[in-house]
Amino acid sequence: MTSSRRPPQLVVETREIEHVDDLLAYASPDEPLAWLRRGDGIVGIGTVGGYENGPGMPPGIDRHSIPAPADAWRHLAAMAEVDDPVGLPGTGLVAFGTLVFDKRSSGTSRLIVPQVVVGRHRGRSWVTRIRSTAAELEAPVVRPRPYGPHWSGTLGPGTLDPAGYQAAVRAAVDAIRAGELDKVVLARDLVGTIPAGADLRRLVRALAHDYPDTWTFAVDGLIGASPETLVTASRGVVTARVLAGTIPRGTDAHDDTAASTSLAHSDKDLGEHRFAVQSVLDALGPHTRHLRADPEPFTLKLPNLWHLATDVAGDLADHASSLDLVAALHPTAAVAGTPTDAALDAIRRLEPFDRGRYAGPVGWVDGDGNGEWAIALRCAQIGAGPARRYAEYSDTIPVVAHAGAGIVAASDPESELLETRVKFRPIVDALA
């Protein structure tokens, strides 16, 4: 008797291995795939499949006819045959993802299924091998690679220079005071270059070292260290961390305490934060039960600034995957504004560039829909995709970085410009 079941498209096998000291050493120097926090996480090698929606689609394919990432992933995962006796976060079938900020963007959203995943979680390490039954791909060698030489990059004013940014802030404040919206997050850009052939793991490593409590990521040339969890889904538990409201760290202990206290009592920042928290509660509510948030924000200390932060948690009430929750949440008020549609219209009007994947979701998802997703902040896009594509044509590779600030009625253009300078510091320092 023959089965009518279609053969699996992906065959996945996870096995525990001896302790891995440096996950990043296993990643590709020019196309790193990584998701790291305090040394734990996952790195990917090679590509066996995934999802793509962007301007580079083959002729005749309408971008709007392509399924949503969550639906496409469900279909792919349902056809996979998984052997995973380890059962830790990040084992089994995994895809790394980076999605555009704005659905009107000319950028590309991608889910990348690697051929090999090397991971570590709370002292245990593993390797996952993924192969396609539809294509014979040479299995990549799973071994650490020496890091290439140190290098440095440069960043300078982009399309929206400091004067232009302050003008955009003033226009946003006018719109808010006119009642068009309550809050909008405006970004500005820096552009520059890095040497062709640079080992991009150096950039990832610098960010992971300097900002160990952030999500350090490298997906499709987007590299950064985000402090903001968009959503985590793990075995029925949903969590998120909302950041909105920022002040630079003080120059000494006394100034630093004063800065934290000032932020905690700032009516402007507390109001901005409330908008962001409520947008997350509204989005997660239909998918969860027992949803709860801290009654008051706490001040989160990072090496270069303080944030107002609120943790949100609940139990999954339906069969939503982490990608479904990402779709429900994004864009939050913390990176777009309130109301969402009015804020997006203001961003499109006042920002003279396409954000691409900046401030969009970045993270990973597994075959059961669990995953960890952050907001792509404190990051830079290296080239328009994998950097090695540029090495044949130039001695340098283009880089673009963005940073933004939440604008409300009480915003001061000069202060908001200063906030973007502080937020640029992690990626500027790491590139230098």
TrEMBL record:
<dbReference type="GO" id="GO:0008909">
    <property type="term" value="F:isochorismate synthase activity"/>
</dbReference>
<dbReference type="InterPro" id="IPR004561">
    <property type="entry name" value="IsoChor_synthase"/>
</dbReference>
<feature type="domain" description="Chorismate-utilising enzyme C-terminal">
    <location>
        <begin position="163"/>
        <end position="423"/>
    </location>
</feature>
<dbReference type="InterPro" id="IPR015890">
    <property type="entry name" value="Chorismate_C"/>
</dbReference>
<protein>
    <recommendedName>
        <fullName>isochorismate synthase</fullName>
        <ecNumber>5.4.4.2</ecNumber>
    </recommendedName>
</protein>
<keyword id="KW-0413">Isomerase</keyword>
<dbReference type="InterPro" id="IPR005801">
    <property type="entry name" value="ADC_synthase"/>
</dbReference>
<comment type="similarity">
    <text>Belongs to the isochorismate synthase family.</text>
</comment>
<dbReference type="Pfam" id="PF00425">
    <property type="entry name" value="Chorismate_bind"/>
</dbReference>
